[in-house]
Backbone:
């Protein structure tokens, strides 16, 4: 299916990354279990929802960077954008909510982090994430990153950190560290949607192939070297290039990828906006319904 039958098990599932992700899940359950009981016994245990969100987030991240979706993302631009959406729009808020607040306090409560506090300013994190994401999708930058392994891994790591910083402002897991009111958080989500739109529009409305990795067989083979074992040039002996695996034309695939990215972004931001508005509305009406004390009476 989708050409996956032509690749080996280790190329499809990246066992080393699978073991690493499994280790992260084991560490998580140790921290919220024995470690919490020993050092933070007064802290409430993680809820079933938190556990589900965290494990699901790690599983999705693995699929995007080590599972079949990672391989498909090197053959179809649509799947590449699915992976980007999972990695930077879906996983970060799930992890932030899934990890109990006492762990975040332990990780970032030390005085040494105060030197980097300016990076967590809402405007800085807003601009940083959207700038990195938009620059990445400039064709020359994208093709360079996708064909240089060290740059690829480093850029993806920096972008993931920037995504966490941006989502921290919206879904801050430590209430006393939150810098934004509910109304400002809604404005922040709206601003994120606006800043991400130009990159999506560039892709959706382009009438020519933008990225050589999905149109030039030689560039594609170079990028596939990070997904397959042995000499990647052997792929050209069996396949004409990424078009062999593509279910549609290059431009159509490219446009669909941009639509998928924008659609997932709108769905995620819409859900977050609805949740924030509901919390704000409930809080405002709770305060209005509280009995008012007359200072003139005893």
Residues:
């Amino acid at each position: 299916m989708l050409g996956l039958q032509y690749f080996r098990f280790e190329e499809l599932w990246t066992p080393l990354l699978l073991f690493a992700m499994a280790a992260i899940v084991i560490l998580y359950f140790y921290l919220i279990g024995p470690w919490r009981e020993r050092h933070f016994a007064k802290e409430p245990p993680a809820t079933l929802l938190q556990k589900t969100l965290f494990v699901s987030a790690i599983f999705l991240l693995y699929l995007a960077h080590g599972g079949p979706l990672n391989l498909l993302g090197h053959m179809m631009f649509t799947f590449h954008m699915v992976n980007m959406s999972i990695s930077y729009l879906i996983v970060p808020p799930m992890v932030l909510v899934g990890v109990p607040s006492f762990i975040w306090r332990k990780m970032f409560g030390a005085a040494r982090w105060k030197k980097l506090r300016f990076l967590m300013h809402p405007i800085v994190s807003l601009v940083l994430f959207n700038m990195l994401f938009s620059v990445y999708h400039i064709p020359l930058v994208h093709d360079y990153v996708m064909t240089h392994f060290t740059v690829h891994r480093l850029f993806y790591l920096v972008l993931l950190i920037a995504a966490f910083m941006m989502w921290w402002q919206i879904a801050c897991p430590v209430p006393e560290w939150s810098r934004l009111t509910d109304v400002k958080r809604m404005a922040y989500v709206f601003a994120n949607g606006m800043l991400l739109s130009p990159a999506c529009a560039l892709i959706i409305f382009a009438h020519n192939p933008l990225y050589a990795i999905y149109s030039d067989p030689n560039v594609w083979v170079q990028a596939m070297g990070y997904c397959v074992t042995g000499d990647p040039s052997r792929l050209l002996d069996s396949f004409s290039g990424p078009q062999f695996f593509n279910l549609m034309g290059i431009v159509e695939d490219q446009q669909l990828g941009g639509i998928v990215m924008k659609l997932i972004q709108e769905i995620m931001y819409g859900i977050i906006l609805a949740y924030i508005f509901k919390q704000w509305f409930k809080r405002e009406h709770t305060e209005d319904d509280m009995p008012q004390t007359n200072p003139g009476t005893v």
DSSP finds 13 helices and no strands in the chain. The chain has one domain: 9-102+113-280. The radius of gyration is 22 Å. Residues 9-102+113-280 form one domain.
